[in-house]
Amino acid sequence: MNRLHITDLPLPGLKLVERQRLGDARGYFSRLFCARELAECGWDKPIAQINFSHTAQCGTVRGLHYQLPPHAEKKLVQCLRGRIWDVAVDIRRGSSTFLHWHAETLSAENGRALLVPEGFAHGFQTLSDDVDLLYLHSEAYVPASEGGLHVNDPRLAIAWPLPMAALSDRDAGLPAASPDFGGIA
Question: Are the C-beta atoms of residues 87 and 64 closer than 8 Å to each other?
Answer without folding.
Answer: yes
